[in-house]
Amino acid sequence: MNEKLNYNGWPNCIRLYNDEIELIVTTDVGPRIVRLGFINEQNFFYLAPDQAGKTGGEEWRIYGGHRLWLAPEKIDVSYNPDNDLVRYTADTSTLKVTQAKESTTGIVKEMEITLSPDRNQVTVLHRLINQSPNDIEGAPWAISALSTGGRAIIPQEPFGEGNDYLLPARSLALWQYTKMNDPRWIWGEKYIQAKQNSLYTSEQKIGVLNKQGWSAYYLKGELLIKKFDFNPDAIYPDYGSNNEIYINEYFLEIETLGPLTKIPPSGAVEHVEHWQLTKATAGESEESIDSNILSLVKSF
After folding, report:
1. The whole model's pTM is what?
2. Domains identified in the chain and CATH numbers
């Protein structure tokens, strides 16, 4: 089901909902999903309080929520302002939002968001359309800015040793501001965890080649699971990263990326995330994750 409403100061938002969960997408700017949560409960997405309801202008704003970018990151490409109205079409379960062509890139960004009528599951199809006269090389980049105080979980590759495991299993990308001894990271045997803690003001980021095809965010007794494709024959941005984690003092981002692709004029490239929202209780130990989260991931 869907309805139009004013949310966080944006008057033209569309709410998708079923009996338990809801999404809110603003059409005043974007495309942006600005709320995901159980009805009348916490919002999994961070929203910048000083940018609520703002529109227009040439300055790029973080806003918060879930957005679509073109990777790899470049100031003149990635930070194209998304401050204007987007076109949309909606039915009972699916909302498609389309941004006007970017003047700097010739790219049109589009999301198709589908909420299951009877499960706490969402499918978000991200589409980059090349309306420039030239080929554009890049990758679709889906970014969720998640609320304060949660913990991201990324699975490690399964353990193996001996003559059958002579080659490396996957890449790990580090940025120049990444500190591996920062206390917000938990480097485990089975999982990498990243904690958002507003007491720490520095930025942190890593990228991984996530062959397991899932990551999760645990927030105050609730869990958001994201699933996405891994193509073993593809080349991914950022030293082979299809999953990235960024942390600052306000929020944590779980980011997924599609393969690097040459998009011809009038061509398009797509990247899909599948989300599930569920109640859960899990500590930081790997035994707790195995017991309380892994079965939820496998059943999704």
Report:
1. 0.97
2. 2-299 (2.70.98.10)
